[in-house]
Each structure stands twice: as C-alpha cells, then as structure tokens.
Design a protein that fits this description.
The chain is α/β, with parallel strands linked by helices. It has helices spanning about 10-20, 50-60, 70-90, 95-115, 160-165, 175-185, 205-210, 230-240, 240-245, and strands at about 1-5, 25-35, 65-70, 120, 125-135, 135-145, 165, 220-225, 255-260, 285-290, 295-300, 310-315, 320, 340, 350-355, 360-370, 375-380, 385-390. The protein folds into three domains: about 1-210, Rossmann fold (3-Layer(aba) Sandwich), CATH 3.40.50.620; about 220-305, SH3 type barrels (Roll); about 310-390, Translation factors (Elongation Factor Tu (Ef-tu), domain 3, Beta Barrel).
Length: about 400
C-alpha cells in the first residue's frame, strides 16, 4: 500500500514511517509547512525550518521520497483566524483538535490522495480498529497503549471517512519504546525533544500572539467571595433540571470587590492562574469567569473555590460530533457507562450524557475544575472515543 506519512521532524512520525516501511508499504514522507511567522515564537523554539531539515534527514536515512506541502494560507484561515475569533468572543478554543480535523486529516489527506496514496499516517499515540457489520465497516478510534501520551482526545472530531484512511503505526507502543526503536535504528532525530505549544507554531506567549488582532483593553479584576449566595442558588437549580443547572453562574461587578486590573478579559481563560499579577492574597487567585462585553475578569482564591468547579456542562446539538453515528443518543435518552474528559491528559471522569431539546448535557459524578466555553468535551465507551462536542458556556 502507498502511504503518505506526515513527517513533522519529530521522533514519533519518524518511527511511524520506519515501521510502515518495515511492514512492506511504499512510504512517502510529506512535511506540512503551515506557519511562516517566527516573530511570535519564544526564543525561536521549534521553528518550522529546523523541523523541515530534520524531516529531510529522516527521509534520506530511510530512503523514502520526500515533499514539502505549503498549507499556510489554509492554516491561517481555518485555525489561526478561528483562534482569534473564539478568544474575541470570550471562548477558549482548542486549535490542536481543529488542526487535526481541518488540516492533517482533510487538506493533507486530500493532497496525499492526489499523489496516488491510499492512506495517510501520523505519529499520534492512538489506535484504530475496523468492525465488520451487516451495513459495512465501522472504524473505532481507540486510546493509545501509553496512557500518559494517549492523543485520542485530539482526534475526537474525526469522521468515519477520515478514520478509514488513517494509520497510527505507533499507537500500540509507549513513548520509551518509540525512543528505543529510534535509537536502535539510528534515526538522526532519535534524541530530539518533543515539541510543545500551538500546533505547527510552537511555544508562544499567548497574549502577545493574540494582540496581533485583539486590542488591549484595560479592565477590572473582581474577586468573588467563597461564600457568595449565588453558589447556593446554583445548587438549587441543579436539583430542578439539567437546563438550569449546567450553565455557569453569571457574575456582575457588584458581586465582589476590585483587586486589580487586566489588559483584556479576552486574553484569559477559565481556570487560569498565571498572569493575573495580583499579590497579597492568602491563596492563589484563579479565573472563575469573564465578561468580554463589559471587559471584567472574575477571580476567586484557591483551587477549591466553588466558582471554579461545576458538575455539568451543555453543548449545542449543532456542535456535537459523533465518530460512531450508530451510537448517537436520541433525544430524551442518556448514556450509561460512558466516561468523559474536557482536556488533554485528564483522567476519564464518570458521569452521563443526556439529550434534551437543542442541547446535550454532561453531568459528572465529581465536580470538574476549569470548564471553559469553546473547549471540547469528549466521551468514551471503555477505550473507544465515541464523540465530542464544543462546550457552549
């Protein structure tokens, strides 16, 4: 089979290419150039040119064809502009999930098919399984064997067509095992550090990055007391219905007292601790909520502050995606035995999913910290990712 591997220059995709080659596939390396502006990257860490050079060396070492695909215009339109729009609206986006859906397994996949490939492969730590049914094949997205590196959450927006043509050659391995293979084979990047930061951009100072399009707007930081009466009101609402209890508390400046200033509420996210620059408190301050219209940031002391935790969240039905359409919940029904996560590397959380009207609601057995609008919640049946949705508020 002719398979195009997304060679990023890192050790994971390099070992993926090697393993496919050893299995007898015709392997082509393709480097995606998705970002050009190095001025936003901290200390020039992980600039694209170094990654491309490493990818070239790996391709040469393995003796496989190599190409560079420039998707920077589409990446800016589909990912970076999306980030600016979401932050501007007071939401917290996840560009890595969108990058996989829109770039790696859409434009990259289409480009691979155009050069005669039958499938694409990446260095993701996840696995795929094909089920044969009376109606044809169903593809399951499974967690990676390495629970510390499992990246199925980042692929929670893929569809059946994308999964059908995707290969994850290292999903059955742990990171140390991947490193060992790279060393034994003698890959030139065997000891390269893992990349960090935004997908294809690298480590950035987020406020400075966002200031390319979002203006600085000084505003007040309001501290909410731990015993505010609205917490009791929310608990009462949770007893009445999912619809009333799943939404966050709406705060006003009069609910607390000013403790400092910020440079724009849209630069922060719920659960954030760093960057507030407010001292003199017994416990660290965390962002509880933000109002980008009034440009007010609401904070509370300590990681156990009631305003930081919620037992439920809601998602618009139009922003819910099912990898397994055959398991999609019908209105009025609730899931049993599924587990959930709202961020990468978060241990799976017990709870249930329910469909009511125009929304899906997730209710957790244990309250969750830092639920932020715009982020993705994903749900699992055992080790299989079933679907995901964008948190509404």
């Amino acid at each position: 089979m002719r398979i195009v591997v997304g060679l990023s220059g890192g050790v994971d995709s390099s070992v993926a290419a090697y393993l496919l080659q050893q299995q007898g596939h015709e392997v082509i390396g393709l480097f995606m150039r998705n970002w050009h502006d190095e001025t936003v990257v901290i200390d020039n860490e992980c600039p694209w040119i170094d990654d491309a050079n490493d990818a070239v060396m790996v391709a040469d070492y393995l003796g496989i064809p190599f190409q560079v695909l420039d998707l920077s215009e589409a990446y800016r339109e589909r990912i970076v502009d999306y980030m600016f729009s979401e932050y501007g609206d007071g939401r917290t986006p996840n560009p890595d999930i969108l990058c996989n859906r829109e770039i790696k397994f859409d434009l990259f996949l289409k480009s691979a098919i155009e050069i005669g490939a039958e499938a694409v492969a990446t260095g993701h730590y996840c696995q795929k399984e094909e089920l044969q049914t009376a109606n044809g094949s169903i593809y399951r997205l499974l967690t990676g064997r390495d629970t510390n590196k499992d990246q199925s959450y980042f692929l929670c927006q893929l569809n059946q067509h994308q999964l059908k043509q995707a290969h994850f050659p290292i999903g059955h391995l742990t990171k140390p095992e991947v490193r060992k293979i790279a060393e034994e084979v003698g890959l030139p990047n065997a000891h390269k550090k893992d990349s960090q930061g935004l997908c294809f951009i690298g480590k950035v100072r987020l406020p400075e990055f966002l200031q390319q399009q979002l203006e600085v707007k000084p505003g007040q930081i309001i501290e909410i007391p731990v015993d505010h009466s609205k917490f009791d009101e929310r608990e009462d609402a949770m007893v009445l219905s999912h619809e009333q209890g799943a939404h966050p508390i709406q705060w006003d400046a009069s609910d607390g007292h000013a403790v400092g200033d910020h440079q724009g509420a849209h630069f922060f996210t719920v659960g954030q601790r760093r960057g507030l620059n407010v001292g003199g408190k017994k416990e660290p301050l965390f962002v509880l909520a933000k109002d980008v219209v009034k440009n007010v940031l609401f904070v509370g002391q300590g990681e156990h502050h009631k305003g930081l935790h919620r037992s439920g969240l809601c998602m618009h039905m139009s922003e819910v995606h099912w990898i397994r359409q055959d398991l999609a919940l019908k209105e009025g029904l609730r899931s049993d035995g599924w587990e959930f996560r709202i961020r990468y590397r978060q241990p799976l959380q017990k709870g249930f999913l329910v469909s009511e009207g125009s929304f899906f609601y997730i209710w957790f057995e244990e309250p969750q910290s830092g639920i932020a609008a715009g982020q993705f919640a994903a749900w699992y049946a055992g080790n299989e990712c079933i679907g995901s949705g964008v948190i509404a508020d």
